[in-house]
Every structure is written in C-alpha cells, then in structure tokens.
Amino acid sequence: xxxxxxxxxxxxxxxxxxxxxxxxxxxxxxxxxxxxxxxxxxxxxxxxxxxxxxxxxxxxxxxxxxxxxxxxxxxxxxxxxxxx
Length: 84
Fold this sequence. Notes:
alpha+beta
C-alpha cells in the first residue's frame, strides 16, 4: 500500500433518511457540520434524501407502468397457444 494516500478522518457517522427518519451508523470520511446523539453517544450527521429503506425498488412499492398494454396484447396474441 502507498503511504499517505488514505483519508485521515475515517470515523463513525450517522446517516439519516429524511423521508422516513431511519438512521444508521457506519464508518465514513464525509464532511458534515451537524451532529446527532444516539444511545448517549454523539455522531456527525449526514442527511440523505433517499436510502434503501425508502427507495421504491427496495421497499417493493415500485409500480409497474404498462402504458401501451403490452402484457394484454401479448396474452391476446399468444396466450391461447396451448389450448389448440
């Protein structure tokens, strides 16, 4: 490993999802001015707009948009193949 290329300010940081107030702690070098107290310990706070706890893909609340009715078209054309 090369010397003096790694960040010096590697510490525990609290990340907070602002859409659902979910907070998790991990190690990071992110620069932040705010702090938060969790379980009696103070951590630097980084606010996020979206995380895996609020993203539609990860929560399973993603909507399938079928604007052209492609599934219905496919089923009407090829859905009855086994019945013949």
